[in-house]
Amino acid sequence: MANMRRSGVIAALAASAALVLAACSGGGNQPATNAATSDGGSGEPVTVTWWHNSTAEPGLSFWQGIADEFMALNSNVTVQIEAIQNEDLQRTRIPVALQSGEAPDLFQQWGGGEMVAQVNDGYLKDITDAVASDVERMGGSAAPWQVDGKTYGLPYQFGPEGIWYRPSLFEAAGIDGVPTTISELNTAVQRLKDASIEPIALGAADSWPAAHWWYNFALQSCPTDVLQAANSALDFSNECFVTAGEKLQEFIDTEPFNSGFAATSAQQGATSSAGLVANGNAAMELMGQWNVAVMTGLVDDPAALLADLSWFPFPAVDGAKGDPTAMLGGGDGFSCYVDAPKECVDLLKYITSDDVLTRFASEVGGIPAAPAAQSGITDPNLQVLADYMGTSNYLQLWLDTSYGPTVGGAMNDAIIQLFAGTAAPADIPAAMQAAAGQ
Amino acid sequence: MMASREASGGSTDIVGGAQAPPTMSRPASAVTTPRRTPRRWREIAVFVGPALVVFSAFVIVPVVLAGYVSFFTWDGGGDLGSFVGLDNYIKVLQDTVFIGAMKNNAFVVVMSLLLQGPVALAIALLMNRKLRFRAGFRAMIFVPYVLSEVVAGAMWRLIFDQRGILNSLMVQWGIFDTPQDAIGWLSSTTLAMWTVVFVLTWKYMGLAIILFLAGLQGVPEDLVEAAQIDGASWWQVQRRITIPLLGPTIRVWMFLSIIGSIQLFDMARLLTNNGAPFDTTFTMAMFVIDRAVTNRQYGYATAAAVVLFVISMAAALVFMRFVMRRDNETVGKGAV
After folding, report:
1. Which tens digits make up the pLDDT trace of A96-125?
2. Fold that domain A42-160+329-397 belongs to in CATH
3. Torsions phi, psi for A181 (to 5 deg)
4. CB interface of B with A, residues 270-289, below 8 Å
């Protein structure tokens, strides 16, 4: 019976376009042949396949260089890399590969609820003992890659979210200093409008950038223990989840976003929300630490942009009950497939070593997951982010990642409806609770 | 969804069938009287067998399995989850987002027929006369149809974006002060759906015109000449002779247009960034992909896909049964 069910699932998947896509792009080719390297190596020849999301430079070459180093150190190992666009990788390639049993050995892992589902389906290798020292070395940032005290992956970067802004536009609008409370932010928005500058860019067409505004209001409105309980028990009954929507509603009513934000995408091209800020058409954007990399990719002169780009944490919400230092964040890591050779874990340990992560911070950019590697940060903005992260009392993983795709999707849809004016603040936790019950 | 796409693919046969002049098949019918000899069965097996195997494996079986999966809470991984009977169907038919998507598809169906049909017919009638550069005009009109959906969607997005080409031009011409004051072609909840309809019209007008032009070739020249000798004006000839004789072609085009509009996905997805603003341009096919791939509600999304399939199928059957009945009878007679 179990077998029949299983085959049913696989055949049903054939009906979905996902598999067609995966087949077309030629996933999971694993030529078993690899010339036994000259010196004989330290064991049987073995191939480790590795899927990551760094399809652009400098990340692409950096990871290849790390793979080459690892192969030089372990002559019996061949590392085969496939770099795949982030959304394709997360939503199509990895789920299909895991489902088919032809999964890559080492693959991108975002942690949170999605990883919990993979653990429950038995797809991930338990690496708790092998990486115990690494988890200790990383501190809190490894937590999203753990389930019930067991470790199923390690992050290489982890960073918080905040508001990116252009100091020159703030100056043009006569704004002194950065807003530390929502009412100060409202004043800044009004000054920018008076100066005919679009205040805040928002890529609401992609849903999640709009949803992140609600996440931050929820983070400010909810006490830490409520948030922690929500992470594990998916309990959204606390009144603070309604308060978050009410605070967001008040903020939306001040019309702080760029005109046409409802159809603006987050990262694609000069008219995306990141592009608007990068090109000086809008003053602010709420976004994660990757925004430096996204924005510099959208302008001709990255150096000029970096000289006029700064960052401040999400302003405190007046009268809110949450921890004002709480920060929302997320990161990128890798997991080993359950049937992967032990060399996969060795490679993962090598990738997340202090030495490699220090070079990652200086050569690729981003905030390394290991505190000891933060000396490699060269970008002054990222240094500010890292410092703020160090002072935060509570770091919450992106709510949609944390709650998993089903609850996360329902939550993001409901938040978008709040923006559209077709849902009330109380509808958001209601939709989340309904999705959690499925 | 794949199966329904197959159904619309199958309907291209009808185009051929409807267009073949019925007179042609008469001599043929005299020759082929059906004789069910073993040799004939072997022939059928050889010719139909492979196609039947492929069709079963990639259409019939997946459709049946999709129906099966839609009764479960499957999240896309591991086992199918728990059996929930018709729960997914009840929920999807009450889901305001899905109902909104259905309304959007219905709007596209109606607008495609109302806008593309009359205009395409007028252009086809005009272009059926002897014109200079006629071949050139025809090629130009067909270009949008040949263009890939993805390219067309991305291109029009660049034009209609808030800071796109069109609004920038209007700022240059002094109509607006800044792009942010200009028109939200794709971001206004009232305007965005009309922008989608405009792009669809631009894209599929060429197909309608080419189909109509092909149909016009089947209108006998002598009928037109006889009418002209009797003193009929050009307009009278079109109204009384050409357009009625074009009936089968128009009905086939309507059929293709309806099915295509119900399944609208790729170009609209790129143009509107997946149904923005606020799902006002969301289509049923987008709903299926979004709920399955993004939210990992494969069971739920499959139920929506089955609903989409049933709607396409019902539209196709009703249209065939009531509107195209006469056309099909002619085809049927020819084959016997």
Report:
1. 899 888 899 999 999 888 898 899 889 999
2. D-Maltodextrin-Binding Protein; domain 2 (3.40.190)
3. -130, 165
4. 272-274, 276-279, 289
